[in-house]
C-alpha cells in the first residue's frame, strides 16, 4: 500500500490511508497520513466496508485492499480493488459444505469497482466460472522484486546445502509439512541445514521449538526486518514456498528466485504463474511426500539445482520493481498509473456514478436515437445497461454495436421474453451506480438531463427527483408538456420519462414486480 500511495502522490492526488483500529488515531508514515477508524468490526470485512463508506463519500479515487472492502462502498464510482489471491481454499472446504452465498460479498465488491488489480490469475479464472463479464474487469499485475536489494549472488552448490523457509511459520504456509518432511531428511543428510526465517506464535511457535530441539545442529530459527531479508536468501541454496492454501505468497518466491536459489513451490495461488516445473523451480503438491521427494532430488542432482537457480534468475528479471513499474513509465504499473490518471482527471468535485437502464423489445426503430441521447450527456460519469428482451428485429445487433464500441455500455440479452419488470430487474442487478434511472427506446434525454437532476437531488437532499417532459412526434417535434406537482403523486403517477433516485430506494423496495410498480417507488420517495 505504501508503494501505491506514493504512485498516487506522484500523480498529484492527496493521499490518505484508512485502517481498521481499536481506537481512533492519526499518524504520518513517510509523509502519508494514516487514519485509524474504530468500529468494533473485528475482522468482519462487510462491517469495515460500511464504516469506510462514510469516510469515502468525497474521495475522487478509492483503492480497496483487499477487494472485499469495496462490497459496501456505494460512492465508489472511481474505485480500484486490489485482489491478493484466493483466500478461502482452506482444508475445511468441501462439496458437502459448498455455499455460494459466502461469495456474494466478493461479487458485490467486484461490481462496485471500475477495475480490479489481481496479483495472480487464480482469482480471475475462478471469477470467470461464475461471471465472465465481472471477470473482464480484472487486470493481472504481478508482484515485483526490488533487484537493488535482492540481487544475484554467486553460490557454491556442490557442498553443504542450506534450505530456507522464508515466511511466517504457520499451517497455511506449510510449516507442518516442512517439519514432517525434514524430520526424515535431516537424519539421512547430516550436511543439510534448514533455516526458518519468520514469525511464529502460540502452538506454531511451540511446534517449531520442539522440532529444533531434535536437530539443534542443523535447524535455525530467526526473524529479520523486511529491509534485511535479502541477507537470509544470500546464504541459502534451496528456498521452500510450501503453501498449503491461501494465496501462495508469490513475493517470497520472487525474492528467492532473484537471489540465485533453487525454488520448491506448491501449486497454490499465483505460484504457478511464476514457476515452470523443472525449468526455473519445482512445482509440487502441498503434501509431505511431494516436498520430501523434491528436496531429495535436488540434494542428489546438483546440476539440476544449479540449472533451476540459473533459470530462476532469468525469470526474476521480468519481475524487477523498475520493470514492473513503481518508478515512472514502466510496463505493468504503467497500466495502474493510467487508471489513476483516468479516474482522477476532471474530478474537481464528487461525481457519483449514475446507472441508466434501457430495456427494449423490438425497439430498433428509435433505439439508436435513444442510446445516443444517453451517451451524449454533459454529465460524464454514468453507465448505460441495455437489456434486449428477446427481440426479433435488429435490436440485438444495435445493442452489440454500442456495447463493443463504448466502454460505458453493457448489454444483457434475455433468452426468452420476460417483459418490462423482469428486464428492469436484470439491469438493476448488475448496476453499480449510486443513483439509478431508466428510460425507454422511444425516449430522448435532453443533453443536460443527468447533470441537472443530480445537482438538484444533491442540493435538496432528496431520495427521488423528477422533471416535466415533452411529448414529441416521429421527427422530434414537441407536441405537449407533461408533469405535475409532487402533492398530486398520492392520487396518480405523475412522474414521466425523466427522473433520478438513490440506489438505496431500489434496495429498500426490492425488485420491480408489476408494470405499474413505478408508483410504489415514487410514493416511497
How does this model look, in words?
The structure is a single chain. The chain folds into 3 domains: 2-140, Glycogen Phosphorylase B (Rossmann fold), CATH 3.40.50.2000; 161-318, Rossmann fold (3-Layer(aba) Sandwich); 354-524, Alpha-Beta Complex (Spore Coat Polysaccharide Biosynthesis Protein SpsA, Chain A). The chain is 37% helix and 19% strand. Strand 8 (161-165), helix 6 (175-188) and strand 9 form a beta-alpha-beta unit. The longest helix has 16 residues, at 302-317.
Shape: elongated
CATH architecture of the largest domain: Alpha-Beta Complex
Largest sheet: 6 strands, parallel
Share of helical residues: 25-40%
Radius of gyration: 28 Å
Biggest sheet: strand arrangement: 10-9-8-11-12-13
Work out the number of β strands. 21
Count, helices: 20
The first-level CATH class name of the largest domain: Alpha Beta
Estimated share of beta-strand residues: 15-25%
What CATH calls the topology of the largest domain is Spore Coat Polysaccharide Biosynthesis Protein SpsA, Chain A
Whole-Å distance between the termini? 41 Å
**What structural class should be given to the helix and strand makeup?**
alpha/beta
Average residue pLDDT: 85
Low-confidence stretches: 325-336, 338-349, 487-492, 519-525
What is the name of the CATH superfamily of the largest domain? Answer: Spore Coat Polysaccharide Biosynthesis Protein SpsA, Chain A
Q: How many distinct domains?
A: 3
